[in-house]
Amino acid sequence: MSDSKKYAVFGAGSWATAIVKMLCENLDEVGWYMRSVYTKEHLLKEQHNPSYLSSVEFHIEQLKLSNDINEIADWADFLIFVIPSAFMQSELNKLTVDISKKVIVSAVKGIIPESGLLVGEHFHDIYYIPFENIAVIAGPCHAEEVALERLSYLTISCADPFIAQAIADNLSSSYIKTKTSDDIIGVEYAVMLKNIYAIAAGIAHGLGYGDNFQSVLMSNAIREMKRFIKKMHKMKRNINNSAYLGDLLVTGYSVFSRNRMFGNMIGKGYTVKSAQLEMNMIAEGYYATKSAKLLNQKNVKKTQLPIINAVYAILYENKDPKKVFKKLVEKLD
To answer: Which residues of the chain fall short of a pLDDT of 70?
Structure first.
């Protein structure tokens, strides 16, 4: 792949801002689409995102900013989508340019609700992107630590190893280490599932469970993740690799985890709506919980998912977290 390929990021949240920062370490110009006119104007004037990772200052001459999704999609060769899954389709509906020859990179952590598909599958089925031109960015990597330039790791998954390596090279720096993988479906499911388990960890913390229980919860979570992914996409993979286990652990334990924060609020007695209103960021795990539940129900042979089922009961069936976790405790080992 040529270094002359143009990269663009779609979205203006914390993870999108972090990815733009990473790309700016290696590229002369980075495209950046954001829906908010205010955010764009603030960036142009103040050189930082007004709402997310405001400590990160950009050299404006490196950025091609636009509120027009078609302008950026037409300009770039690599389109990195970092829009929350619940709002992805409404943004994609604005596309009028042909993106079938582009490389699509998903940094989205969930299922597209309208299609019930992973982001990669959605782009393949709806926008006719070949699977070899679809990639996924996975952690373990929190946006806040990228902003602080703390050592972090990324896994880039793609069926085409040359595309995967090109993306990895353009995200690498002294504080970002990258590796590649060909398990695009498995990694994308792992990225989705880890947020559900982080909500579970947060609920447990909010209810007063300690570190001993948290470790049992996380060890059961990785086994549950393995069962789910194997059922959805069977191939040889090491579930203990950083794209799976590592990303799960950092999302489940970190103070920067918005999904853990959301779960913690639920455990402390907040309603789902009140917790969502108080948070300034999207907890992707809320939407992922419903998607995972529905996907499992569609299988003839359903996978045992006690943790996901517990989180679903709390978030979508208004069950008492204390009672749900009291039953969950007996199913863990």
So the answer is: 1-3, 281, 300-301
Q: For residue 1, what pLDDT is reported?
A: 41
Q: DSSP labels for 10-33?
A: E--SHHHHHHHHHHHTT-S-EEEE
CA within 13 Å, CB half, 63: 25
Residue by residue, DSSP assigns 87-103 as: HHHHHHTT--S--TTSE
pLDDT value, residue 300: 56
From 194, 234, 273, 326, active-site residue: 194
Which residue, 265, 301, 274, 272, is CA-closest to 289?
Answer: 272
Q: Is 194 a catalytic residue?
A: yes
Query: What is the enclosing helix (H) or strand (E) of 156?
Result: strand 152-158
Q: How many C-beta atoms surround the C-beta of residue 111 within 10 A?
A: 27
- State the pTM of this model: 0.90
Q: Are 226 and 186 in contact (CB under 8 A)?
A: no
Q: Copy the structure tokens of residue 139.
A: 């952690």
Cβ-count burial 16-49 (b if 16+ within 10 Å, e if not): bbbbbbbbbeebeebbbbbbeeebbebbeeeebb
Two structure tokens written together for 91 = 């943004």
Q: How many CA atoms lie within 13 A of 68 on its CB side?
A: 9
SS3 assignment, position 311: helix
Give bridge partners of residue 65 from the DSSP assignment: 32
The pLDDT value recorded for residue 111 is 85
Distance CA 22, CA 31 (A): 13
Structure-token pair, residue 151: 């050592």
